[in-house]
Amino acid sequence: MIKQSKWVRAHTNIAFIKYWGKENEELILPKNNSLSLTLDAFYTDTQVSFDEDLNKDILFIDGEEQDEKALNKAQVILDLVREEADIHDFARIDSKNHVPTAAGLASSASGLAALAGAASLAAGLDLSKEELSRLARRGSGSASRSIYGGFAEWEKGTSDSNSVAIPIDKADWDIGMLFIIVDDGKKDVSSTEGMRRVVETSPYYEGWISSATEDLAAIKSAIKKQDIVEVGEIAERSALKMHALNLSANPPFNYWSPESIVAMRKVEEFRNQGYSVYLTMDAGPNVKLIGKASQMDELYQALLETFRKEQLVIAKPGPGIQILE
Ligand code: 2P0
Description:
The protein is built from 8 helices and 15 strands.
């Protein structure tokens, strides 16, 4: 017998207050609360089938079968669902990533959120948003936030049961992002490894934790006021502090390429011209602009002097997880 879900869609999110460090690696409990914006431009569609005829779990992304390593995080979620629903069959996961070609963007947030939705649906579990967020978190921390549209906060909590994301604001005001895709081809330090090294070795880690708490309170009040200048300034500082942690680790590492610096300077130039635009960066060389959605077309045009159009993607706030009919 096959228990098959409908297709489930989850969008990616970008953290404005970064998650960078785990308190508990197995349960994925973070050291600090984080806050993100879910975006419309990048998403994953996933369908799960529990099938008694399978002799192992299999994962297809865009029609291509993936290796064991790619399955690791997904199997954590499958196992939790099997346990809760008392299912003993293996599963086939089909995923389609809707990310512009060669974007080089990580899709673990949208991917594992969509999987949490599809796997629980296939198993006949009727999970609340909170339960879905908790399940997605066990695959990848950032996925906990992709259950919700707009701004979401992942509350670090103290245990598996209360480390979940909650919705903060619909972001239905003049805020948007612009991605500058920079692919330098060099091998990354994975997020998991990067944050572990920082927690263990950075002499600045305590400072990160106390300032992340302050930044979080400040950005929540700025979001309430819909103040793009304050939101952008705080987000940019949070990102740069995260990257400073990486430089202060032993051994040090960083995610920047020469083209990242070119993009960062552009943001400064735009600000000097009077635009309210700020940057954020994650565990890779891409630079993401935060600003008024209504000004993103102008900035896009200006960036075409320096970057190819394939490198530029405008994104608006996006919705939470949804079942496709
Ligand atoms: C974030 N990042 O808040 C931070 C900022 C990247 C930089 O969460 O180890 O794939 O699976 O929990 O969620 C990316 O790391 O890490 C991430 P795990 P995840 O978005």
